[in-house]
């Protein structure tokens, strides 16, 4: 059988790929960066250099998580609006 792939089907496959494989890896890396920053911040109580680098790593980890979840939410809204038959 020969099946044709529609644009909505292609979008559905790309979103499935992102949701199932890419998103967990990137979110995991952002959480890892945040918790490494927490560890640096806690264990470098006397050393100001590591203390600041830990704080910055925590901040950038949180910024990365915020940006990722914001983009994910916007994509959810756009997909529901323009491709109502595509389930995420």
Structure, explained:
By secondary structure, this protein is mainly α. The chain has one domain (10-77). The chain is 82% helix and 0% strand. It has 2 helices and no strands. It has helices spanning 7-43, 48-82. The radius of gyration is 19 Å and the shape is elongated. The mean pLDDT is 82.
Q: Quick one: how many beta strands?
A: 0
End-to-end separation in angstroms reads: 27 Å
Protein structure class: mainly alpha
Individual helix count: 2
Overview features:
88 residues; mainly alpha; 2 helices
Which helices and strands, and how do they pair?
Blueprint: H1 7-43, H2 48-82
In short:
The chain is mostly helical and 88 residues long. The chain contains 2 helices and no strands.
